[in-house]
Design goal:
- By secondary structure, this protein is α+β, with helices and mostly antiparallel strands.
- The protein has 14 helices and 23 strands.
- A 7-stranded antiparallel β-sheet has the order 3-2-6-5-4-7-8.
- Helix 1 packs antiparallel against helix 6 and helix 6 packs across helix 7.
- The longest helix is centred in the middle third of the chain and has 29 residues.
- The protein is globular.
- It starts with a strand and ends with a helix.
- About 55% of the residues are buried.
Length: about 600
């Protein structure tokens, strides 16, 4: 077993509240400025449009001071792990940090979320003493894996097949650029002008963050800034402890399943359980993942414990127990995770052993977050949604005018219904929190046409609050190329809650130019595609919440007008009779009485 836990909070404050609030605001603004700078300087749409990046400041040991709230939780959240991985590697090699260093790191067994999420850390010094780090992370279009792209690499047999590994490499040393490393990057990565350009934007952004942080420390003094930081950690911890203490003591368990590799002949590769038990004791919680499937030694859907599993758990608990609608803006730091201990069996999907591959950990991580929410639903049913529809990521690639191109498209999932609201349609789940790429951006840069982008018809899961609706996306290739897919949710429906219906599964098909169709599994290794062929994706729909017969008939009528359901479904699923564009109250009463 492996556990992740932290220490308890102190009760008293170290600086006056006004000074503390000013320093908190300054720290958060530095991270936000870093985020804007990185977006504006980046070349690829995955950073510029989808916002699949992270920016943060940490202290000298890796404790996170602040993060950019625009960024992806799966990027900003792991940054403390990146820093600790960097420090551990440097110590093992006997290396030290000096002003002007910039360190590149993407080791998924050393804090990084997975290999394509490359971090760049700039150490911050005050009078020769290391006082912290300014860090950027971002998902890159390619990292030199066996096939094009950095997603859809679903057939990697070990960590070495997933692409280049950088373990605390100094790309700048004392201000001098290490040209050899940058040459390796350009020579071993597809679409290297985009990828290396994004990396250089990360370096510049981290340097800007370091400058801003040093100015803040020089203005207020290191002791005052760090005292304010310790107060923020304690404040965040108290909020989380109070929220946990409000839960009834007990054990809350849930199990869900992911597809795995449905087309595999090996049973151990498909229908894989994710198990969660939340053990609430006073103001602390143990999250026990015992019962989760064993790792797949030769398929990359394993999840790094640090960088993926911990983030999925902490994010879900924080989002449910400390809802920003109720609590407002909460300092995002590791004080929130101090009351939580994670127990994960070593050698499981949730705690793999090197060199088990992990590059496709994205969809299992979403499923883990969903399972945590399902377990927590037993304690706080009014604060959760029903089951979520997982996301899918497609890597398109090809050659145009003699140059390689790679594009990563994140296809939205959906949320389940909630106690007081319907599920959110066509949205990235919190674990990802990325934006979609505008069609205009795709079609102006790539030999791809987007023929359809719409909500699924008549597929919303029934409930007092209906489930969120997934999208239909259709892509047509305008030149020969290839694609690979990382997805899930083709076999297992998102769970309904409190009488709500289960959601709808996803599907994926390849349509030939002559109209012939080939159904594809949720995970597709590199597959050639010809000009004129179409790739059609149906995203999953989230589960319903509550008894469908308790849904307001007027709201059901609105659903019909919106095209979410048809008249027949209104009658069969909700017991609502609609005649001549209006609710037939008498017939509805009879239907519901049955």
């Amino acid at each position: 077993m492996t556990e992740i836990s932290a220490s308890p909070a102190a009760a008293s404050t170290r600086v006056d509240p006004v000074t503390g609030a000013v320093i908190r605001g300054a720290l958060e603004n530095i991270a936000i400025e870093m985020g804007h700078k990185l977006m504006r300087m980046s070349y690829s749409s995955i950073i510029r449009e989808s916002e699949d990046f992270g920016t943060a400041l940490t202290d000298a040991t890796g404790r996170q001071l602040c993060e950019c709230k625009m960024s992806t939780p799966l990027q900003s959240g792991p940054i403390p792990g990146y820093v600790r991985g960097i420090l551990s590697q440097l110590e093992a090699r006997g290396q030290t940090l000096v002003p002007g260093d910039v360190i590149m790191h993407n080791d998924p067994y050393g804090g990084a979320s997975h290999g394509p999420d490359v971090g760049f850390a700039v150490p911050v010094f005050l009078d020769g003493t290391l006082i912290g780090f300014s860090v950027t992370t971002a998902h890159h279009l390619d990292i030199g894996a066996s096939t094009p792209g950095s997603t859809g690499i679903v057939d990697a047999v070990d960590a070495y097949a997933e692409g280049l590994q950088f373990k605390a490499i100094k790309v700048y040393e004392a201000g001098v650029k290490n040209e050899a490393v940058w040459s390796i990057l350009r020579d071993n990565i597809r679409a290297s002008s985009l990828v290396v350009g994004d990396m250089e934007a990360q370096v510049a952004t981290a340097q800007i963050g370091a400058e801003r942080y040093l100015l803040l420390v020089q203005k207020y003094g290191l002791k005052t800034v760090m005292d304010a930081f310790e107060d923020l950690l304690d404040y965040s911890e108290r909020l989380m402890r109070n929220a946990i203490a409000a839960l009834p003591d007990g054990d809350y368990s849930a199990k869900t399943f992911i597809d795995g590799f449905l087309d595999s002949h090996e049973p151990a590769r498909r229908d894989l359980p994710i198990a969660v038990t939340l053990k609430v004791r006073g103001d602390s919680m143990i999250v026990d993942l015992t019962g989760t499937a064993p790792q797949l030694p030769d398929r990359p859907i394993n999840m790094p414990l640090v960088g993926t599993v911990d983030i999925a758990i902490w994010l879900t608990l924080r989002s449910i127990l400390l809802d920003s609608v109720v609590y407002g803006s909460i300092p995002q730091n590791e004080g929130l995770s101090r009351p939580i201990t994670i127990v994960a069996p070593r050698g499981s999907l949730a705690n793999p052993i090197f060199p088990a591959p992990v590059i496709a950990r994205f969809c299992p991580g979403n499923a883990l977050a969903d399972t945590v929410m399902k377990a927590l639903a037993q304690a706080v049913p009014a604060q959760v949604s029903a089951g979520i529809g997982n996301l899918r990521v497609i890597a398109f690639s090809g050659t145009e005018h003699g140059k390689q191109w790679v594009h990563m498209e994140i296809l939205e999932g959906s949320y389940g219904g909630r106690a007081e609201a319907d599920g959110m349609d066509a949205v990235d789940t919190l674990f990802a929190n990325t934006r979609n790429n505008p069609i205009e951006d795709i079609e102006s840069h790539l030999p791809i046409r987007v023929d359809r982008y719409e909500l699924r018809n008549n597929d919303a899961a029934a409930g007092r609050s209906r489930g969120g609706i997934g999208t239909i996306r259709e892509f047509t290739m305008l030149s020969d190329g290839g694609f690979s897919v990382e997805g899930d949710g083709h076999r297992y429906k998102p769970w309904g809650f409190d009488g709500g219906s289960e959601g709808r599964t996803a599907s994926l098909k390849l349509v030939a130019a002559d109209g012939g169709e080939t159904q594809l599994p949720s995970k597709v290794p590199y597959h050639k595609i010809r000009a004129g062929e179409h790739l059609v994706s149906e995203g999953p729909c989230g589960g319903g919440y509550g008894d469908p017969l308790a849904r307001d008939p007027a709201t059901v009528l609105d659903d019909v007008f919106e095209g979410f359901i048809d008249i027949e479904t209104a009658a069969s699923s909700y017991g609502v009779a609609i005649r001549d564009g209006a609710v037939d109250s008498a017939s509805t009463a009879k239907l519901r009485a049955r």
